[in-house]
Amino acid sequence: MLLALNAHGAGESLVPNGSFEEATQNGLLKGLPAAVREFYAGTADAPFEGWAFGGKWEKGEYRVAVSNEAHSGRQSCQMTCIKRGRGGIACAPIKLNPGEIIKVTLWCKAKDANGGRIFLNFEGSPGDGWTSKDLKVGTYDWTQFSKRAVVPPHPTLSPQGRGKGEGQGGGAQTIAVFVYTTCEGSVWIDDFTVEKVDVNAMAEAPDEPAAGPRMPKPIPEPAGSIGYRVAVVSALEKVFREDDYAPMVRQSSGLSRRDPEDRGTDALKADLINVSAARNEFESMQVVLEAPWRAVTIKEIVLSELKGPGGATIPAAALKWERVEYIETTVTPPYFAERGLGSYPDPLLPAGEFTINKLSRGPVWITLKTPKDCPAGVYTGTVSIVPGGLRSAGVPPAAGAGETPALRPTTIPISLTVWDFALSDQTHLRTLTWFGGGLVREIYGNDWSPEGEKRHAAVCRDYESFLLEHRLGPGGECASTVFKGKDGKYNFAPVDRTLERLLSQGMNAFIMGTAPNLRRQKLTEYSAQFVKDFSEMTKAYGDHLREKGWADMAYVYVYDEAPRSAWPEVKKIDKAIKAAAPEARILQCLNEPEGVRELTGYADVFDVYVAQYHKAGVAASQKKGAEVWLAICCYPMDHPNFFIEYPLLDERVTPWICWKYKANGFEYWSANAWGVNASKKGDRWPKVPWVANSFGRYNGDGYLMYPGEGGKPWSSIRFEALRDGFEDYEYLWTLNELLKQAENAKQIGEPLAVAHNLLSLDELVKETGSYDPDPEKYVAFRRQLAEAIVQLKGLIERK
């Protein structure tokens, strides 16, 4: 029996029992032909007629149940996580012709659905996942989602793979739509429909309408207005230009307001910027300027020195401000982006005069670097916003119809608490990224002439230093190639110069050689000559690095993202490397987590994606002495990830997760994969719009900085949040070191118990892979870490 394989008209649901009101009677799977049943591998009949359910994919366990929490009718489908992996429910198969358009609509609600994805996946004869749509995660009430799709032509199939009526290159398609969850918590589904859509209707109302200019709703200008508004917000908040304006007076949030004790002055005082930092730490702050009534030009922003205890000062030069710019996303990503296509804050542009258009806003990013030797205590200073068109003191604003009042400056007080400890220059979490010098050459047009080479080398040095200032090491390619001279000896002088420079700036990991991904080179095996040459180079280079004292930071990278079919070749090259150079440490990145078990004993370091830590079973390898790194890439698309649409907490929390799972290092595949932004001819960004999806359909994936003018790197708010996360890691490391000192000195007491509890991170990051989505909790927890460090440090010093 093929349910829903009948002919249907437009507007009629193609699947039965989308309201989940009918209990299973006949079952779905037993009536399906073998070729169609293959699309439901891993499932069993669900408790709803016409539906199948699978709950044990990717080593997880999910349960499906009838729920009386319905969007409409009496009941709905509830999927609940017992152990994180992947679970999903699938509708009955639908027979459609290539070129036909369908619209899937469903209502979802969720509770504590964190740590993964909820998504629609279109499967069947066109392939597994020929299109998909991410849905919202977290906790929310009934929300409608929809996805339109054009049925693709039939792929070439083997005779065994064809169902009845499915011919090679043509014929009808069999479609099965799955709703998957890889999250914790529960997901409810109701009122699931699949309808045919007329092509004209598709054109008139596409799934993702083109991003148009959106603006906040106008608000009246109050009496005594200074002509614009100021807000102090968290550096973990993404500020969107099109959001409606909050009420004018909201003291707890930092919205600007007139100081009741300073009504007679010519400047407005906005609410306090209240931050804290250790010595030798960067701290981010954010101020938002709003223009509800007219365009506003900001002539300058003045940052004062900060005055502290006993006459101590932090000079104004320790602070800088940058302007947050916006990037338009124009391609619908394969993951859930709650705001859809549109304008997202990301690049940081240098200080300078700028204009905020009417009915818009402009965030200003302020960065403070505390000196290594400043006394602990509270420091105060100001941020002064100086707009164009200032009016003089005592001159009232214009009040006539159509008249434009002049503007007044704004002063924002800063209160900085400096904790009585310093962060070290050395980052104790090993970090690594691949920096693309070729893209830098394309952007800046540096040719291969001697002068062009000098310019290019200088620009690359600036970019590498910028990465290290953010505690992300450029060790992917900087020292991965050594050349053999005509005399048969390797020339290590070039890599020595590079390593001396970068290691002195804090780089703590680098790749000394790479056995390439064979599939990308259209090869199936490493040749005997390559194995011989690579093993010989590894031994010679390793011996040299040991003489220099750098070997403990060197890794051999083997077959990036090795698929299952390549594991025999990985084993072959690993064995050859170890035979020639037993001390070499082999780093293996995998996108199939089962490879950890298969390659244990061959690789020394497993580099797995954050979302796959538990699926890979690397905790068992850690217990056997293996080093484990965590990585972020476009896949998997679970949180945390570094997409432009995702919250800034995703960057901030990643180093916390590394601490939680005792990872030795963190790797990000590229800091400047600018793609078409670098290769396009003619004007480039910022003169022309930035292409957000420089790699595939993933907005922001593969770049954390932007190519600035004059060969200088420009940061992003994502990169600043990641650096803050790396510095949070240093808080954890510092507290842990102090705890070990106290325990070695046989000290006991509440400070040690507090430290143990904090270092577990149990309040925020769970053993299951999920983490608390509230950014303010991390700010508060960091303060607790600082207080515990100061208390434990004092206890040790008094001993």
Can you put this structure into words, describing what you see?
This protein is of the alpha+beta class. Among the domains are: 29-204, Galactose-binding domain-like (Jelly Rolls), CATH 2.60.120; 229-391 and 406-422, Immunoglobulin-like, CATH 2.60.40.10. The chain has 15 helices and 36 strands. Strands 1, 2, 5, 6, 8, 9 and 11 form a seven-stranded antiparallel sheet that branches. Strand 27 and strand 28 (490-491) form a beta hairpin. Helix 13 packs parallel to helix 15 (775-798). The protein starts with 33 loop residues before the first helix and ends with a helix.
- By CATH's scheme, which homologous superfamily of the domain at 229-391 and 406-422 applies? Immunoglobulins
Q: Roughly what is the average pLDDT, rounded to an integer? A: 89
Largest sheet: 7 strands, antiparallel
- Shape-level CATH architecture of the domain at 229-391 and 406-422: Sandwich
CATH topology of the domain at 229-391 and 406-422: Immunoglobulin-like
Secondary-structure class:
alpha+beta
- Helix run count: 15
The CATH first-level class of the domain at 229-391 and 406-422 comes to Mainly Beta
How many beta-strand runs? Answer: 36
What portion of residues is helical?
10-25%
| Shape annotation | globular
- Residues in β-strands, percent: 25-35%
* Measured distance between first and last alpha carbons: 80 Å
List unreliable stretches of 5+ residues: 1-10, 156-169, 249-267, 391-403
